[in-house]
Amino acid sequence: MIMASENTLMVINVFKRRNSAWTIYSRWSYPFTVVDVVVHNQTLYSIAQDVKIGKFMLNSPKVNVLEFKNTPFFLSNNLNLVSSDRQLLVLHFKACTYLEVYKIDLSAMEWTRIHMIGDCALFMSGTKCTSQSNPGIMGFNSNCVYSIDRISPRCRVFTLNNKLITTIPLLENRPPFKARLCSFDWCFPHQRDEIDYTCHE
């Protein structure tokens, strides 16, 4: 599956390999941009600037907007949906300095602010965030957010209580003369997402 976003047209295009065709999904009827999508429990979810969460229906060009209790009220482009150890999380990183983490309970249909996520860590770069279980085997700490700075080559480590633990430099030497430094990102080769089409039939 390939996704392409068109901000000016307020649509999301999804290419499905099973029928080798593109499907156009409207970003519902009000003018708020979808800022992130994630695969969670083999289902595709999205979140918009006004924190509305949608569920993609893959058998039709439709996004169902879900209703939740205790939904916070704010507008933000700094929102990330994260599938973490069978939990759906929302990471709100305001101005890259203030951190909020919420759990989305799809059974009780409610938002809950949390400060612990178990034996997992969150890794953020640019506009994407991912979760890794048992981070200690890679030398990372649980219940932390590792955020790569967009401006300078460094990684800041936060607790889920929004406390800055440390800052890790990513480059000891300057890049070669005239070389352009590309964006840093996290890469976890073993991580993959799967969609279960039977959930939408």
Mean pLDDT: 80
Largest sheet: 5 strands, mixed
Rounded to an integer in angstroms, the radius of gyration calculated over CA atoms is 18 Å
For the secondary structure, the number of strands is 16
Protein name: F-box protein
Pfam family, one: Beta-prop_KIB1-4
Domain KIB1-4 beta-propeller: 12-153
Brief description of this entry?
This is F-box protein. This protein is mainly β and 201 residues long.
Structure description:
The chain is built from no helices and 16 strands. It has 201 residues and is mainly β. It has one domain (2-186). Strands 13-12-14-15-16 form a 5-stranded mixed β-sheet, with no helix packed on it. Strands 4-5-6-7 form a 4-stranded antiparallel β-sheet, with no helix packed on it. The protein has a 4-stranded antiparallel β-sheet with strand order 8-9-10-11, with no helix packed on it. Strand 6 (53-57) and strand 7 form a beta hairpin.
